[in-house]
Amino acid sequence: MADLDDDELLEALGVEVAPLKAPSRTPREERIIAGFEDILRFHQTHGRPPQHGEDRDIFERLYAVRLDQLRQLPEAQPLLAELDAPGLLTGTAAAAPQTEDMDEDALLAALGLGDAPSDPKDITVLRHVRSTAQRRMAEEVADRTPCPDFEKFQPLFEQVERELKADIRKTLRFGRDTSVASGHYFIVGGQLAYVAEVGDPIKAPNGESDARLRVVYANGTQSNLLRRSLQRALYKDDTGRRLTDPDMGPLFGDASESDDIETGTIYVLRSHSRHPFVAAHRELIHKIGVTGGKVDTRIAGAEKDATYLLADVEVVATYKLHNLNRTRLENLFHRLFGAAQLDLTIEDRFGHPVKPREWFLVPLQVIDEAVRRIQDGSITEVTYDREQARLVG
To answer: What residue spans in the chain does CATH classification 2.30.30.30 cover?
Structure first.
């Protein structure tokens, strides 16, 4: 026994030693991880890191900025090492002038993980000391916490993302219109934010009117902050944006526009693909398109085009319309049936993953009703209920 060390002695006595539990993560660390997981999901979907560029999708550009900032955040490397299997953090960060002079707190604010500090060169601001002013601001600034009923809001974020990609909504620099109301969407700190609730008006310390907001973010968190706090955060954020309302404008009009078609055809296709999911739901899956030419010409060679699921297609309905705007009409279908868009990834002829658009899980009779409502102008009065598979007013 004298030669046994502590572990051997405990083993000989049949005593099991429970390992110490690892300390739980701080809220800030949880938020850093949540932000990085968005980037990982993008990488898994597209097979590459998000990239900068005016021609890129708005969310890809935001993720690219966020990745640059995470690469500069000292604590990110050890915190995210186990998650970073693709090595996203070890790449060379693209130039991000807006973050070069930021400290950790400012970087976290840029990531949507906190509020950015005031100008670090301002000698009138106390550092590392909780002043009376800072204590008063505790009521104004709110940390993000997990959103307990996020399942209610997730479909809204998914719909908005589809509307952005379809150009139904636009992003505008925050400043010209500073209003903040229930139902408004913003991009702040690289995160899509939705104003879910606006509380009763209150008096701010400077005497102006303010209100407490419930803001829900696309990463599943929420914050309970003041309206003026959100406005200031949007002002400070170079990437801060307001999302416009999905106002489609007129489909038909007297004045012609660049994308108007004198005589056009709405066509509905059904796929002959042997993909298991498509085969099982063939009578329900339809592609809706608009063309100013012949439909037969449009679908020629469908079996070689991933847009048509690399299979022959059958034209199951066509509708002739006059003096219509093709882009607005296609966007209208995306907006109406966006929640029922087919979520399917296939490989193209070169083995590259492709996610075809404009295919929807919508019965033909519902599409027929939607076209009739477009013609009589009542389409704006209904939405598509995916559970009931019908239009509801």
So the answer is: 145-243
Nearest to 290 by CA among 341, 257, 237, 328: 328
List the structure tokens of 325: 């705007």
Within 184-246, strands assigned E span 185-188, 191-203, 209-217, 221-226, 241-243
Three-state DSSP state, 26? coil
Nearest CA-CA partner of 27 in 143, 179, 110, 157: 143
Tokens of 107: 């970087």
- Domain at 145-243: CATH architecture: Roll (2.30)
Q: Side chain identity at 45, as an amino acid letter?
A: T
* Per-residue pLDDT at 126: 37
Coil, strand or helix at 341? strand
> Cβ neighbours of residue 141 under 8 Å, at least 6 residues apart?
115, 225, 229
Side chain identity at 42, as an amino acid letter? F
Q: Is 373 exposed, middle or buried (0-12, 13-18, 19+ CB in 10 A)?
A: middle
Are the C-beta atoms of 212 and 199 separated by less than 8 Å? yes
Binning pLDDT at 50, 70 and 90, where does residue 176 land?
Answer: low
What would the pLDDT profile of 346-372 be if each residue is shown by its tens digit?
877 677 777 777 789 999 999 999 988
Q: What is the pTM of this model?
A: 0.39
Which range has highest mean pLDDT (78-82, 221-225, 330-334)? Answer: 221-225
Helix or strand (DSSP H, E) at 391: strand 390-392
Distance separating alpha carbons of residues 309 and 381, to the nearest angstrom: 33
